[in-house]
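The aim of this short unit is practical: by the end, you should be able to scan a pair of folded records and say something sensible about each. We start with the first protein, listed as its amino acid sequence and then its structure tokens.
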Amino acid sequence: MRQPTRRNWFTALVLGQHDLGIGDVALAVVLSLYAVDLVTGHNSKHLDGGWTAAVAVLLMTGPVLFARWQPLAAAAALALGAGLNWILIGHLIRCGATLPAVFYVAFVIGSRCHRRDVMVGIALLAVSLVCQGWSDPKLGSPSVAIVMVPISLAFMGAGRLLRSRNAKISELEIRTAELRAQRELNAKMAVDADRARIAGDLDEFLHDQVTKIASAASAGRATLESQPDEAQDAFVSIQETGRETLTHMRDVVRSLQDNAPTEPQPVLRQLDRLISQSASSEIQLQVNGDPRMLPPGLELSGYRIVEHLLLTLAEDGSSRASVGVTFQPDALELRVVGASVRESDARPALAAATERAVLHGGTLRSNLSKGLRETVVQIPIPLGQV
């Protein structure tokens, strides 16, 4: 069973209905008290209808109480109540309280019922209005329904507008939830791709380190008797290489653990912080085009690409470098320019950045001239995210 909200906890507890608010109770009570006051003659020059009329008139206001729960039943109750008051009680002024009840039920029918039920509901309310026109001296005649029915239709139309608005809001909430789930899925895919790259780098790193250890062990064994000093150096090299490998593996395993504490994935607007933490030369950040939020995977990859490319810049405080981010209509361009490290040192970072770009269907172009490197990355923005 659906739990009652704060708005209707009282009626859920007292009346056993969850789709009933305090406003329904208050409106029914106010209209009923006013109707009783009208028919008992306290504020009217017409005859006092007595307590019989006071009880009967509740049939024309009380259904407001369950109108939101059972709209058609409330409309039928209003029609039956109007007919009984006309036949059993006769001519008394009741319209000041009973017409608002009809209009409210018309609004509820419009906001809660389907088209076929709406037609049934308006027919029942029309019967109520005709009976009131016959039995209420202030309304005069049944022909008053010619005016009151369109007014009821106007209230019903307002209810239909509310129903349409609520349906659109519900649809937007569903689409928002779907988009949020898609963004989370894209972010997870980007993280998985990052982990796959790290695992590939780890395999290559281990292969190189084991090769170094094997070479050092072979050299040490060959010189163990003839050149003990060189053999000792080889074994020291094996020890250092082993420690370096173990440290690197611990770092990688820690980053791949699913249960490790995580932080929000970095995005392009955090590049200024990344650049400020860089040990390379003085770097200037330039943002061009129409800055906007991109898909989470693309935001993360753009950040990582710049992070990799910063490793290609020389740590020279006397030179200047620049990082350019250009938001084109259908693509993201990243440009890193500055004094370069040695080609052998830049190659791993360029390879990692290229993998990131290719993951999104992008390209990387890097030129080195007279010690100055210019790297440009072009990544297309998926259709629908432009």
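Turning to the second protein, read its sequence before its tokens, just as you did above.
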Amino acid sequence: MAGININRTTSGVYLPPQVSSEIWAATVEQSAIMQAARRVNLPGAGITIPLITSEATADWVAETDEKPVSRPTLDNKAMTPYTLAVIVPFSNQFRRDLPALYAELVRRLPFALARKFDATVAGAYSPPGSGFDTLASAPQMTVDGTNTFSDTAAVLNAVAAADAELSHWIVKPPLHALLITTVDALGRQIFIPNSLTGTPQRQVGSIWGATVIRTNAELKTSSIVGDDTGLAGDFANSAVWGSVEGVQVSISDQATLTDGQTTINLWQRNMFAVRAEIEVGFVVRDVNHFVRITDGVVDPS
């Protein structure tokens, strides 16, 4: 009789509750959006973030003339935290007999949380509610290999035209491969990966002086203008995320789980389950400070 995953036929490791901080650190490391955007402390009731929409302006004055008066303009945005969670069930025999459980959970749980957060921010899924921004409505531009140098320059110019500074490129593997194989008329590589970075598998250099971060998260898809392969924009100054308490981890062997149409009584089945969750929020100052990059390939109808 087949058992319910995860059991002794599944390889993996045991996770004690005290490793929550490790899972949280790994979640941030796995999330391209969290790496690129600015983090703030987020209370459970949410927060209103003040935004400077224009600066005070100085001017020249002649001797004895009155000095000019100028005021910056301000605005604000509400950031509301929403819960992002995953539960993974295991058999007690698996915990007892397979010493690999700890490392496997640390590797998988942060990825699940980070991947869903990034995909939601990128517009692949609807936001969980109001006070949580996404980049679904950001302008879309094509970088498809026909003229990669000019295409990336056009993305840079589009962000600059919105009065922002492009700080990060977040790219999926196909776009990353396109960028690092782009050469000039003499066959010289234009965009060179940075081998000195602390995490070379994820942060791979720069384009036009802006940091490049690789991602495997889902991005927005379209049957009309092509699927997104990356994001570019002023993540450093115009995107803010916050978490209420970091990752919270709970282990139970008494709960009853609802898994689709299946109900799993953990005590009855000699199982336990690990739940990881975060309360997290995300807002942007202006969605026009970002560009969704598409491959330009329209799916056949």
